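Let's see one such:

===
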Amino acid sequence: MTSDEVYSTGTVYISYFDPFDIFESIKEPFLEVLPLRNIHWKTLNGSLKTVDEVPVNLVTETKIFERENEDIRLFIRFIVVNCISADDYRAKVRPLIKQWLISSGNDDLKKDLARLPMPVILLYANSEVVDFKLFTSTSLIDKVAKDFPDVKALELKSVYKSPREKEEFWSQMSQHIKSCVLDVFQNRLMYNQAELEKVTDTEDLSQEMQFRENILELYLALNMLEEADAELEQIKQRMWDKSMSELPNGELENPFQFSQENDEQFRISEALAAKHLTKYEAQKYFFVKEFEIFMRDNANSPNYGGLYKLIRQFLCSASLLFIQEKGFLEFKISFLDCCLVHLRNRPQSALKEVTAELLLIRRDCWLQGVLDCTNFSLIGKIFPLKDIHYSFDRYKYTYDTEKVFHETYAKYTKEIISLLSQCEGMRQRAIDILSIEIGFLHYQRKEYDKAVALFLSCYEYYMQSRWDLIGIEILKVFIDSLDQCASLTELEIDEELVPKSVILSNAYLNIVRISRDVTEKGEWWRKFTKLQQANPTNLVYATEDLFHLCLEDHVWLAGPNILGIDVIIKSNGIPEDIKVDSITLVLKRSDDTFIKFQQRDMILSTSKTRYSLQATEIIYGSFKAVSMEINVGNTSFVKEFLDNDASEILIEPIYDPRSILLTVEHAPQLNLGEYALQISCCNSDLLRSSDVIITIEQESSNSVYPVSFTEDGQDNTKHISEVNQACIVPYYLKEPVTSFSVTANFSFTKIDCDAKFSEIRSFNINCCLPVSVSVEDIFKRDLFIFKFLLNSSTIENPVVLHSTRMLPPANSEQYDIRGDFRPETSLCLSANLNENCLNCYQITTKQAFTPTDCFHLQITYNTLKEQLDNLVTDAVLVQGDVNWYRKFEPWKQVWESVVLPLLHYDYEAFTESIIIVLVRDRLDLQRLSRIFSRLSIEDVVIQAMTECLLRIIQGVQLSDIDVNAYTKNLTPRRLIVPVDLPRFEQFFYVSLNTEESHELKVGVPIPFTIKIESLNLKWGYEGLAGKFLFEIISSNEWLVHGKKRMLITSEITEIVLHIIPLKRGYLNFPRVEIINIDTEEPSRIDNANCFDTVLVF
């Protein structure tokens, strides 16, 4: 049976009668127009359907159609004739055509074409009759058409004027054939549909099936697959509705064939009419038709999954009917062989996959038959016991001996592997499974080297796929095979040579992973450790299925400068203690910074699950677990954590009075205009060596560094080799910032141990100067006064002024300074223009003032924020409870660095009413609670901190006594403001004196003595510093009688004159003025009578 025979039922047949043996000469070009392409058919509902291709079988009319129903496939009958003369036509050709029409049933040419093929006369015109009229008035073709008006006559040519004429001629011939085919198709379709309507409601199912099958064959003939599939479904539905359940099973067809033995086409209608239709025949009929539709429909766009399903469904149906038949396995193989005949030669990858699946079914069916009738066996291949003993002699040649059986089994399996390897889909695992079956065969045949080669590439699949039951058996066979290869020391894996011991170690551990037998686990674990001791190789394995690991999400203080974290480690059924060299946990911060917790020389006990790891190289921040590694000898067991495997672990500084603690803060005492960091170390006497690197942090990777440690702005890192005492590190602003952050990398060793310690911590530095200072100088005859105006520099950050003090110039004892300011209660200063604080310092000297001398104003202060933070901590949180403070003390750095910066106070409420209260809705208490929960803080401490925050949210009333008492605990800041004496200017002292003791009256002159004294000597200069003009300024209160204006020529000048009052009452003394003649600017004057008044009557 050829691969095309299955399709013979769905083909348009065209027969030809060639009485003169002339068709062979033009058959080749005739066949070139077949199959018919692009046929357009207008359906009954008016839509246009295009059929891409219609297969055509061209057969000789001498072939007898033995069954009448085959006429449904015969669409056209050709008769091929030619003639060379009119006499030849009259004597031979015309009678021949008439006789041909009568013999074929077409003598009545007007008869309906619904049941008969269309007769067509092909008139071959050779070179002798081309363009020649054999008859006096008409051509030969016209004569034929006239004699047979109801029969289509077409001309055949073998000689053409040009290639183009040949192409056009055969194109026209194709159109004629298409037209004829469509005419016959339309007539037959309409006829059968009309007849079907007449019998649909009758009880005669055979007649209904006859017309439905005719319609199905018509659709199949014209390759209208959608319509054919719909019609086939109708036939199936009608059969199930009417009689399928009543039909007998029938006989098992062994071997299976697509067509009948006599090549007849099976029809359900005929079998029904003869009352011998069986379930098997009906199911086979449906299968063959559906198979044909699938194979045609998927020629260009394969959907072979449906075809595979169809074949499996038919096998399932046959199994239900004949599973107890002895020849069922032979039938099953013959059926699969018939299907495979049509699939093997198709190139599509998807079809190769279906072919491979069918071959696998065939192989397993064959294997079942062989094992059922022989004593042969294969590892891993066991079929359920059946009551029936199947016959399998037909395939005896495939298992004559056990060797032949093994070879046949290997051949079948390798063929399937070859097909699957050509598939585009992911079938590698199926290939692995089949390869393992070949491996089992090699193992059974004691071909251990071949078994190892196959198992090595396959068994990992079962480990990854969690097929534990299969995987462990493969492993044991693999290990035994490898042990049997005594000469094998290395295996090539991924183009690398791997020692045999390493491969065995992997296999041993995999058995430990998946075995459910505790005793077996222990046995293979001991084999693993023994092999590792004998062959010390550094190996890394995943902890999966060997150890169950999880982390606590809190760290705790394990000792001075040592953090601890607890981990849970459970061995997966290993029934013995395990000596561990080290356990290492690695955590990672978001900036790819890592911290390691480790413990060495431990025993993983079967009775213990919680273990503590420690870190001496500490980094603070929020971390996630990256990996945990358990080292046993030369072997490492590693667990890689995914992002969602563990919660974040928060590491914050935990205080211990025995710890060495480095702090970086803004220097508490600074000169105005200078910036510096103070780096201090607690318990520095415990240090053996230390090293600190301070690095300025950038806000982002693209931003500039805000400050620098050098004036040129190039140095962003400061290295300090020893920090035995506090040190000051100056820095310089590069940008106008109010704060910045630094990272301190502190490495050190202690005098009492050899361990290396380090801490990496970030510090926020507030570099905004909160105090605003302005200064004014006042000259007097015997003293000099500095007047300072003090305020807060920003509205948002008030300051608390504790005291001010004026410091004299260095190494100078000549000055007497008065005016130090130390209020009983510290003053709160804001940036409000309506509030300020004045400090005036009076400076006298027994010697002369030196203009180059520099005094320093020392301001002792804190910000109001710092004072309130201190009050909240001491007065509200701790409240003098020493016992509770011991529990709180380890976490005071968390309180200071995490909690206090989040508190935004209502400063006005405090300054007016001494109430500590937070600005409404500025504190996220839930966020703080989440932070607390991620730290190992005792519940009693968390509760107290939470209650403290709740209290200050509502408001806490304090007294002046509380504030004064607790403020003493506050570490003050100091600002040193340098102030210089003003540069020297000519300075005069002027006094107006009168001897009059009686009453002064309006208009009565009063004698005055005016004394003008130069104070240059007081500032270290002799003589006058230029030319000066003295003048008494006129006013509407006084008249000057005498020398009103005069040059000053000596250091002391006295003049006498009269001044006449012009008004009654209290009058100020006349104003005086001294002008520098060179600069025309007024000079400084200490006027002793500037604000004196006299009573005039």
Residues 864-973 form one domain. The chain has a mean pLDDT of 87. The first helix runs from residue 24 to 32. The longest strand covers residues 547-559.
